[in-house]
Amino acid sequence: MKRRREMENGSEIRSVIEELSMVVKVKTGDDDHDAAVQVHQDSAHIPTRPFLSVCNSILQVLDKIGPTMAVLRQDVHQNIQRLEKARESNPSKYSNLIEILRKEVTEGNARKGASCCKAFVWLTRSMDFMVALLQRLAKDPRQSMEQAVEESYCIALKPWHGWISSAAFKVALKLVPDDRTFITLLLAKDENLDTLKEEMQSLISLLVPFLEEIHSILSSLGLDRLKAT
Questions:
Q1: Count of CB atoms within 10 A of residue 149's CB?
Q2: What are the DSSP calls for 43-88, one per residue?
Q3: Paired residues of 31 in beta bridges
Q4: d(Cα 167, Cα 148) in Å, to the nearest integer?
Q5: What pTM was estimated for this model as a whole?
Q6: What's the number of CA atoms in the CB half-sphere (13 Å) around residue 33?
Q7: Alpha carbons 49 and 96: distance in angstroms, whole number
Q8: 92: Cβ–Cβ under 8 A, 6 or more apart, which residues?
Q9: DSSP-derived 3-state class of residue 96
Q10: 17-69 pLDDT, tens per residue?
Q11: Which helix (H) or strand (E) holds 115?
Q12: What radius of gyration do the chain's Cα atoms show?
């Protein structure tokens, strides 16, 4: 409870950093760092509950962007629930999220319906989007939010979306808050712009290598090219 109160008193960016740090701590010692550059599915490990906690924290950041992210936010929430339900079916075995993915791949269900593999892929792409956005904001917090969000979308999500999703996003883009409003929403009570930029850089430095590992895992499982249906 104490940790939760501390997170509520801080910024959403700080919350994601704390949750992601927990994932890193759990993973530390699982694999030799030098060997982790090339991740193989038989030795890969992503702690399920800490990973889903990171995703839940990212939802709070997406909320700050407003109605533009409503569809993405809903997808993230549903994908978190799907993976959590799978974990609860066998908490011990599925404490490693990769076991959930491996089971579906082995059974030939990875690309069918509302699979956990699809959920994991889209959660990863949501984090790709957030990294792209943070990189732009950290470089220039006063740049056009509409431009930053659109550029981030084109990099992380548009290549995998069909024309319907892309068209819907273009309409919703008009609802993005201006840069000053968004930065104000992200700031915690004890923060200024400089400390927020430092937190953005800290989060980027954690997310980028983590996502590189995830994409290596997805590639090894043959899931990296999945598109929206």
A1: 24
A2: T---BHHHHHHHHHHHHHHHHHH-GGGHHHHHHHHHHHHHHHHHHH
A3: 28
A4: 18
A5: 0.86
A6: 4
A7: 9
A8: none
A9: strand
A10: 988 888 876 665 555 444 444 445 567 889 999 999 999 998 888 888 877 77
A11: none
A12: 17
